[in-house]
Amino acid sequence: MNANMKNIAFTLGMLVLATSCVSQSDTTKQTQSSPAVREVATSETVATIKIDGSSTVYPITEAIAKDFQADSQNQTKPQINVKFSGTTAGFEKFCAGETDISNASRPILQAEMAKCDQNGVRFMEFPIAYDALSIAVNPQNTWAKEITVTELKKLWEPSAQGKITKWNQLRPSWPDRPINLYGAGDKSGTFDYFTEAIVGKSRASRSDYTASEDDNSLVRGISQDPNALGYFGYAYYEENQAKIKVLPVNNILPSRETVEKSQYQPLSRPLFIYVNVQSAQKKAAVKEFVEYYLEKAGKKVDTIGYVPLPAEGYQLNYVHFSRGKVGTVYAGKSQIGLTMGELLRREGQF
Hints:
Elements: H1 3-19, E1 48-53, H2 58-70, E2 79-82, H3 87-95, E3 101-104, H4 110-118, E4 123-132, E5 134-137, H5 149-156, E6 180-184, H6 189-199, E7 210-212, H7 215-223, E8 228-232, H8 234-239, E9 245-247, H9 256-260, E10 268-276, H10 277-282, H11 284-304, H12 311-323, H13 340-349
Parallel strand pairs: 1-2, 1-3, 6-7, 6-8
Antiparallel strand pairs: 3-10, 4-10, 5-8, 5-9
Helix pairs in contact: 1-12, 2-11, 3-4, 11-12
């Protein structure tokens, strides 16, 4: 699609958005009460695009931002600041109107939607990849060949704090050695997802572990600690296979194949970006960057180490962006065990 056609499609989409109406009582979508939308002039320039949120999604967005800035065909030449503070912290900034795009490793929640609505921040939601949350240990760990969901729950539930502190307490055949835990901080969407998927309740976790929203910090800790066990996004394992060892969960290894076949459950999950509608309408750089992102995401996701969506998923994203589809298809709720097929079905009905 050439630039003129993209502009036309986007403008028509935003006109549809401006004239549509959705009740706020439906938590799946936001109210649509902003002023009439104008077409972004191609001569308009914006100095900075601000992006924050998930450390899991960060490598994808950072790589696409670098490619965009290096692409001689992009017209706006913005400065793109990509940071990570965790999905939850990212939504706090996004819903306060402080960022243009928010990376997220889970869907936006109802309380976050209410905060966005309170501040007049309307958003568009785009799934851009799948992740396989990975359970990792130090390569010197010769005893743990795999682990079960039941054992992970026993290890990470709040009642385990100060009590389950050795490997042989999980499995008698494992050694009488301390088990040192590493995991996501409580501002992370990975923390929300892992606790609900494994413990059964979001944010229910023991707290006596090394916590960080920086996955590279967790990798370093595990790689230097023979007694370590931790969890983080699959791309960080892919990048550091020489330093850490991943464990099969219920005898299933995380991989592109096991995610696509819906076998690596319940630790497979979709990853998202959220775009501030006003930023996309009024800032030419944001509009151009999002179009570029949605076009390039599939190939870049694969090179980073996550699992790309089928081509249909990226096509739906582009259609939704051009038509100005506002809100979320997930009703402000977490989505444990959501398969690619179910994700595409929901997106297709949006």
